[in-house]
Amino acid sequence: MPTHARKPLVSLVVPFHDEDEAIGAFFAATLPILDSIESVRFEIVCVNDGSRDRTLDRLIAVAAGDPRVRIVDLTRRFGKEAALTAGLDEAAGAAAILLDADLQDPPALIPAMIEHWRAGAEVVAAKRTNRMCDPFMQRAAAALYYRVHNALSEVEMPENVGDFRLMDRQVIEALRALPERRRFMKGLFAWVGYRTAILEYTRAPRSGGRSKFSGWRRWNFALEGITSFSTVPLRVWTYVGLAFALLALAYGAFIVVRTLLFGNPVHGYASLISVVLFMGGIQLIGIGVIGEYLGRIYHESKQRPVYLVRRRYRAEREAAAAPASTLLQFPLKRTHAARRRTPMPAGGNVAARKASFK
Questions:
Q1: Interacting residues of 122 by C-beta distance below 8 A, sequence separation 6+
Q2: Other C-beta atoms lying within 10 Å of the C-beta of residue 170
Q3: 155: buried, middle or exposed (CB in 10 Å: 19+, 13-18, 0-12)?
Q4: I need a labelling partner for 299 at 20 to 30 A (CA). Which of 65, 173, 228, 254 fits?
Q5: Which residues in the chain come in under a pLDDT of 50?
Q6: CB-count burial class (<10 Å; 0-12, 13-18, 19+) for 149
């Protein structure tokens, strides 16, 4: 039996959206690290999330020269959460590592993740200890968001822990079994639980290009996270309504008593208009909060797929021997059907994993 057949397979899942400028640096930094790890085999699942530049062409060129690279080309931009979902659906390994292409999360942590996984951790998450490369407002907003989310939600998200993590096959299957379409992956990672090890690192600047996550997208992403894991905003407006009702009752009683004792002199309408406008604003905000939750129910009820795949690319086995001058022209095999996977047996995977490394 070949030696590599006894090694477990680990899937590296990487979403790409308009990362033409970062692809070269990403593979130059990542492939040598993967090659240096002899205890496991790797596949690299590249998810093209509706890129409009040459990202797909460059990924095809890389796949033609390295049979470990597979490409999942989505029909349009579905967003990073959907791209990660697609990558996990395609991953065939006993574990999967989620990694961004901008190299802000260092591939150099992959060997340590593998070691913790071998030791029995089912999730190995990477925590940013220093985010000085990010703008001040972004850091402040992120810190505030984690505090607000953890205060409102029953599921606590560890602060400064992003998508960069290793997950065992049973964790992947648990995530894939969740039926929701509007997916907030960081929250889902925290929700499924499992034994988790934390690795700390200092975040680096982007290797190329610029972030595609605008301020408006970040705001909507934050709302998505809160409404996905908390109903506290709905309860808050119940309490706000109750408080205003009690105030109105007390004020009404005061007016009745004052009128009976002192008469009812006519006043101007300025204070009345102010109160009406204020209450109208409060009501509209409450309706907006309810609308957020109704919108989620509406989207979930349609049961549309999280993503659609236009095409899958994978190089033929002979691609590894192809000369560099033919990489762009090398034929790629197009696959349509998802591969059948045999899930790791629950409860016995840690012992089996340790045995596979002996």
A1: 167, 168, 170, 171, 194, 195, 196
A2: 20
A3: middle
A4: 173
A5: 1-3, 317-358
A6: buried
Nearest alpha carbon to residue 76 among 27, 22, 18, 20: 18
Over residues 138-173, the pLDDT tens digits come to: 667 766 766 776 677 777 777 778 888 898 999 999
SS3 327: coil
The pLDDT value given to residue 269: 53
pLDDT in tens, 171-198: 999 988 888 877 888 878 888 888 888 8
Question: What tokens does 291 get?
Answer: 């609308």
Is 294 found in the same domain as 203? Answer: no
- Enumerate the β-bridge partners of residue 13: 45, 98
Tally of domains within the chain:
2
Buried b (16+ CB within 10 A) or exposed e, 247-268: eeeeeeeeeeeeeeeeeeeeee
**Residue 57, both tokens:** 């062409």
Q: Locate all alpha helices (DSSP H) within the chain, ordered by sequence.
A: 20-36, 55-65, 80-90, 110-118, 136-152, 169-176, 185-192, 215-229, 232-262, 270-302, 349-356
The C-alpha atoms of residue 11 and residue 68 are separated, in whole angstroms, by 9
> Kind and range of the H or E element at 167?
strand 161-168
Let me know whether 298 and 309 are in one domain: no
